[in-house]
Amino acid sequence: MGKWIRRVIMLVLLAVFLYSAGTVAVILYQYHVTDELYADIASQYTGQGGGSSAQDTEKDEQEPAGAGADNSSDTRREVAPITVDFEGLRAANEDVTGWIYCEDTPINYPVVHGEDNDYYLRHSYDGADSASGSIFVEAENRTDFQDANTIIYGHHMKNGSMFASLDQWADQEYYESHSVMWLLTPKQDYKIILFSGYTTAAGSDSYMIFSDACEELDAYLAKCQAMSDFRADVEPDGEARYVLLSTCAYVFDNARYVLHGMLVPVDSAGGEPFSQQ
Predict the structure, then answer these.
(1) pLDDT at 63 over 80
(2) Which of 74, 95, 108, 140 lies at 20 to 30 Å from 41 by C-alpha?
């Protein structure tokens, strides 16, 4: 009888092991599929940008170098470092409202805006079922980032994708190497000047939405900066617009890691310099 019991126990343990291994394999496969999807769309819909506008390049070429001439790169108009084919992206899904990018990090994704905050938790940018979901804007925000602060969510995936890297900004050295992100849209591109990052609770005051500049926004920005894990030589401007990037953290129940950034417009849309009249 004892031998049979041992055999049953071994079979049960083997079944548990195979089930667990199968579950892990499925999860890893889903991660792989999602990573391939976003790598493919980045390859298909984005390109190398940056540099100066055509008008300023012509101006630099026409002005001779010499005493009194200013041919420094400071005279060139700044544009986003990548370009995005929003026409193609929006043909696939009209919910695409932007693209977020941070050099030398995994953050290089389309940004969508849905009717609620549930759908894109479980669907990729093209509407396919996905455990990784999408990078998406808070449903209560306007789609064009014209609110005084806009909330952008992303999963904290265990393979480091989506917004999993946000908590790395808790390290001062990492912040100093990655103090700027980019938000590209069809009508206007922005530098995201990061100035605060910290752990908070889901539903905390950090998730307040301000439609326009106000005294309450000034107090909110000061409070957020005071809670930051890193020190940033940035003075928030109450008249500017802001984004809050949010992902799950695992330090307590319903914890979140958030980054605050100030939107600074540059001279491009979708990474392409504005056309000159």
Answers:
(1) no
(2) 140
